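> call design_seq(struct)
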């Protein structure tokens, strides 16, 4: 902008000089006459040419901004449509007003999306079938029917409905999601991975990495999966099992990314053939960087128990209990210490009762429905959600 103003001022000055015939003088050199005003005129043309080149830039920026805004609006539409149809499917009338406002901003007052919001206020028995039979709302009807088919587990009908989606709408986000669910429930991991890649822009960076890593694991490409998500316990354990020679190093890397009880148990197994002094050294090295982290305290307590360092084991467990919630593993360790080290049978029984009532650190919990599973699975066994099981 500063350069633009300078050029404008310079051009104005040159115009003034030329108009008032200022500084006119003729140089007679070898019979050639040169007018200074003419030189100023030529200079003015160069400045004017540069000035016009600068004027084009704002128009270019404006076009770039319009293109960006258009793409943002398209993304907003793709997010809004599934939200609208989900509300319609579950008849969430409380969302009708806010959805109506969004529909008017994105599509206009007389759009089919506004008609869909109106259906929230006056739902009909076979609303999705009726919507499907009308061309302007066909996609909405298909969405509802696909959702109903998936809820019933009727994947054949689901596929049949997806084939009716117009080609121009095949890349719509909810269509891609439905195809993903269909591929996952058929264990077509390769197709699911392709769909994850195609819909990368709709996922957060973490979601994309996690989804891709889980599918690579199911395809047997454990090394690639581990490089994407080294802190995922299921992936780290699978890779350590495949590459048993480097299991110790793999599990150490996984631990440093995200300390975890399952990782520690596998690590302990990988060093079981080492002499006791080397086992102790390995576990101390493993937990050094995360000395006060909950699983480091448990790992050291477990190591001290194995080495019969009862007092130090109890000290680590007491520090744990001051900062973290009681779990089944901690209660079992305390019961073992009370019974083995100090022969306190009654105290040991109390801890065993607490263990039964406490959470298990080795269980996998679904983020969608809260279901617990003993082993990691790519789909929740209860709600069928994809990549939703995590271990604390």
């Amino acid at each position: 902008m500063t350069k633009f103003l300078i050029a404008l001022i310079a051009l104005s000055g040159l115009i003034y000089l030329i108009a008032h015939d200022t500084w006119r003088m003729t140089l007679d050199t070898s019979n050639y006459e040169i007018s200074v005003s003419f030189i100023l005129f030529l200079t003015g043309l160069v400045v004017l040419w540069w000035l016009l080149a600068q004027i084009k830039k704002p128009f270019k920026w404006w076009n770039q901004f319009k293109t960006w805004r258009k793409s943002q609006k398209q993304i907003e539409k793709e997010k809004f449509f599934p939200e609208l149809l989900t509300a319609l499917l579950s008849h969430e009338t409380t969302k009708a007003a806010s959805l109506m406002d969004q529909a008017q901003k994105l599509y206009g007052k007389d759009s089919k999306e506004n008609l869909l919001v109106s259906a929230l206020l006056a739902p009909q028995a076979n609303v999705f079938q009726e919507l499907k039979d009308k061309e302007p709302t066909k996609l909405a009807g298909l969405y509802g029917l696909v959702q109903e088919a998936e809820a019933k587990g009727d994947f054949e009908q689901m596929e049949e409905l997806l084939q009716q989606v117009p080609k121009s709408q095949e890349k719509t986000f909810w269509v891609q999601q439905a195809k993903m669910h269909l591929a996952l429930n058929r264990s077509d991991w390769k197709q699911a991975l392709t769909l994850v890649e195609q819909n990368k822009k709709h996922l957060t960076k973490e979601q994309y990495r996690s989804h891709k890593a889980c599918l690579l694991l199911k395809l047997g490409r454990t090394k690639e999966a581990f490089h994407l998500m080294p802190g995922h316990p299921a992936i780290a354990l699978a890779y350590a099992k495949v590459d048993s020679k480097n299991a110790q190093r793999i599990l150490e890397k996984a631990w440093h990314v995200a300390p975890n009880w399952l990782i520690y148990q596998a690590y302990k197994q990988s060093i079981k053939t080492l002499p006791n002094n080397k086992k102790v050294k390995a576990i101390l090295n493993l937990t050094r960087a995360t000395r006060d982290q909950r699983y480091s305290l448990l790992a050291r307590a477990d190591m001290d128990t194995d080495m019969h360092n009862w007092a130090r084991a109890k000290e680590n467990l007491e520090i744990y209990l001051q900062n973290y919630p009681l779990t089944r593993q901690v209660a079992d360790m305390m019961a073992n210490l009370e019974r083995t080290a100090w022969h306190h049978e009654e105290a040991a029984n109390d801890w065993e009762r607490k263990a039964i009532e406490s959470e298990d650190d080795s269980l996998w919990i679904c983020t969608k429905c809260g279901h617990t599973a003993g082993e990691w699975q790519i789909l929740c066994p209860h709600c069928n959600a994809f990549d939703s099981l995590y271990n604390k």
